Write the C-alpha cells for this entry.
Amino acid sequence: MGRVAGKVAIVTGGASGMGRADAILLAREGARVVVADLNEKDGKAVADSIGSSAIFLRLDVTDEDNWKSVVGATVEKFGRLDILVNNAGMIALGNIVDTDLAMWRKINAVNSDGVFLGCKHGIPAMAASGGGSIINMSSVAAIHGQSFVAAYTASKGAVRSLTKSIAMFCKEQKNGIRCNSIHPDGVKTPMVVKVAMGKDVATAEDIEEVGKYGNMCDPEDIANLVLYLASDESRFVNGSEMLIDNCATITPPLGVM
C-alpha cells in the first residue's frame, strides 16, 4: 500500500517542473491524479506516462468557471477529492519601479487568484469526501523578500497568508481539511532557470549549468514534501510554512548579478 493509497489529487501546473514531479510521485504512492494545466500536449504526456490512475484536464487557474468544471469532473471521474496541490505559477523579473501594472496583475492573477479559486472550489468537494490536504506552493520570497521580483514576491506573500487563513477556517469548520504552504528557494525547473539565465527558453544544458551553483534543488525534492503533506503522516501539520532552501541566503538570478 502506498502512502496516499485510495486518495484523489488535483495537481495544477502538472505538465512540467514541480507539478510533474508531484503528480508522478503521488501516483506512485497510490493516489489517482488529475494533471491540470494549460499546456495540453505536455500535460497529457504526463498523465499518459502515469497510466490509468491519472487523467489530464485543461485548467486556466485564473478562470473561476474552469475551476468549477475541473473539480466537478474530478469528483465525477474518481468519486472524491482528497488532495489539492496549488502549484501553477509564473515569475518575471522586475523590481517595484520596473514592474508595470499589467505584469503585476498578470502575476498576481496566476499566483494569488489561482490559489484562492482552487481553495474556494476545492474545499467543499474535499469536505464532502471527509477531509483532506491542501498544499499551496509559495516561495522563500514570501518570507525574506526579493527585490528583483516584486510582483512575484507579493503574490507568494498572499499565498503564505491565505494558507494560514484557510487552515484556521477549516479547523473552525471541523471539516478535516488541512492547509499548508511550501517555500522553496531555487528549483531546477524550466520556468525558474530561464528567468535565472535571462533566456526565453531553458534547455536541459541550462538546467544542468544552473544546478552547479548549489542553491537550487530538484523538483523531486519538493515532491517528497508534497507527498508527506498529502499523506496522513502529517495529520497534525496545519497552517505551517515549510522551507526548502538548504539554509540559503537569497541570491539574485544570474541575469541581474
The first helix runs from residue 17 to 28. The domain at 8-91+108-186+218-243 is CATH 3.40.50.720 (Rossmann fold).
